[in-house]
């Protein structure tokens, strides 16, 4: 009886390794800050990735980045590098790692970590003492991250 329960628990734990989506705390980075495993287990949608990239209420990547080839981008920022051709220069795993937690690739960067929920100073706490309690949501969902990975990977020139 006890053995059966243990076997069941073990197989559940093994199954959990493939559960979707990968939780922010369970993301595995390579030494260089890349993330090999898809957060959702399915390929992202590049068209939606462009929306996440340019929408001020979603990724708002345009606050800092421009893509010259996408002239429909309004008010793109110049804080970060231009991302034309990023899919040529970086693997999907590298792009995913930069999105999940850019600090693992670029130490001390101003780019936000988009799939991280701990280790932050609660915004507002120092000023108002009214920072929200409990776990924060990541800035982007696993699906949104994979969509942006698909979109940036498609930028080949
Ligand atoms: C506050 C500014 C800021 C925002 C917002 C921002 N980034 Fe960045 N990003 C940077 C900076 C700066 C770098 C260069 C790394 C460094 O040296 O800090 C960078 C680097 C990158 C790189 C690596 C480019 C390369 O090949 O070297 C990618 C890819 C990237 N950002 C994608 C994104 C995406 C996608 C978003 C939105 C989800 C985003 N960034 C939002 C500032 C930003």
From TrEMBL:
The keyword Translocase does not apply. GO terms for molecular function: electron transfer activity; heme binding; metal ion binding. PROSITE patterns: CYTC (PS51007). Residues 1-19 form the signal peptide. Residues 44-156 form the Cytochrome c domain. It holds the Pfam family Cytochrom_C. InterPro entries: Cyt_c-like_dom, Cyt_c-like_dom_sf, Thiosulf_SoxX. Keywords: Heme, Iron, Metal-binding, Signal. The keyword Membrane does not apply. This is Sulfur-oxidizing protein SoxX. It comes from Thalassovita litoralis. The lineage of its organism: Bacteria, Pseudomonadati, Pseudomonadota, Alphaproteobacteria, Rhodobacterales.
